[in-house]
Amino acid sequence: MITVNKIVVGNGRTRVEILITSLDQGLVIYFGGGLSHVGSVVYGEPYMRDDGSFGCTISMINPLKHKEFIIAMELCETLVTTCGIPVVVIGGIHVENATETEIAEIIENVRNVSAKIIEGCSGK
Prior knowledge:
124 residues; alpha+beta; Ribosomal Protein S5, domain 2
């Protein structure tokens, strides 16, 4: 069964919309803000380590000058290693002339949603 949830965090220029698509065996996450678009795409797949914990192998597509890959990789790896399922994260945020403070707030907004997603996948 496929379910889709939307979470909106932040306001104004630091508002981020996140779509969470839960599949029978995996997650597809999109985060966007400002001028939303397909920027960086990260795919993570779990593997079992000798100690029983999950590791993660990552593949990435990142167009020139896109920096969403930084938070997309972090989000993907966290979800894969915590939930033990394949995850695709697509990031597309463009806020013209964003300040360092705005960028930090956008990143924090995405990280906060990550914790909520992890709560939802515990038990998968």
